[in-house]
Amino acid sequence: MDSEWRPDTEAEREMAAALEAGDGRKYAELLMSVPLYLPTLADGSAAGWPDGLPEMTGDQVLAFTSPVTLFHTLAGHARGYEELTFDELRQRLPDPDTQLMVNAGSPIGVFLTLGQVVALAEGTESLVPIDDVQDAVVDEMMIELRRRCLDELGGDEATAAAALTEVAPNELERKLENAVEHTDFDEFLLALLSAEVVVPTTAAVSDPGRIHDRGFPWRIVGEDEMPLIPVFSSAGVLDHVVPGGPHRVQVPFLDVVAAWPSKQHVLCFNPGTTTELMLPPGGVPELAAAVAEADADEPL
């Protein structure tokens, strides 16, 4: 969305300049002086909520500084808007802790409370860009997924974190560690896609080809609304992280991707280790589609 957005008003151009300069006071002064547009959401708008936009909760308010920016973000989700001033908004919502998502989905988006807007204008508060809030939410979600996965496997974070220093690394693990060291996600994925991995199971599996069977005994942890599937880079790492010698099968990671049970399942690869990879719901099917597209583009 950001690449297509353009300021619609002089105030929005000044807001963009204020954010670029890190001038929170100027941004707040502009916000308090321009009309605000609160969207009226269409029925069922929660379905297919715009990508990249934080999910709304009951104590948050979406506000925009122009109708153009509003409909750029909420095309198909807003059927209109209400115009009011910042002072009118404060009169309606007297709680200074009421949270605002201002110009969400645009480069001039920020996340702050009504009280923080006033504090910004007074120079006693700093801006919190919405991207930073989203990053923090994602980080918290990853922490919770890791904790849940390790807890249900009977492991713990301290033991998992030391796995690759206490287990002799195989070729895949050396490649993954190198990719992590160089912050090269493409290298990480390429190494993983070309290697075999170890998948915990709920029963013994003698034939790796069974992973494509409907009744394959995946070891699934987590809750029904967000089931987690742990996968490990080697039997050594699995045995270090998960006590008790669980059932497992070694298969190509490409087979794991191809046989993935559903869009709802989360991949927990090497949870808690230095080479951890979490792919959220839909992440593995997206990876499968990308692999298929790359294969189709290769010359015969």
Automatic annotation (TrEMBL):
InterPro entries from the UniProt entry: SseB_N
Residues of the SseB protein N-terminal domain: 172-284
Domain of life: Bacteria
Pfam families associated with the record: SseB (PF07179)
Protein name listed in UniProt: SseB protein N-terminal domain-containing protein
Record lineage: Bacteria, Bacillati, Actinomycetota, Actinomycetes, Pseudonocardiales
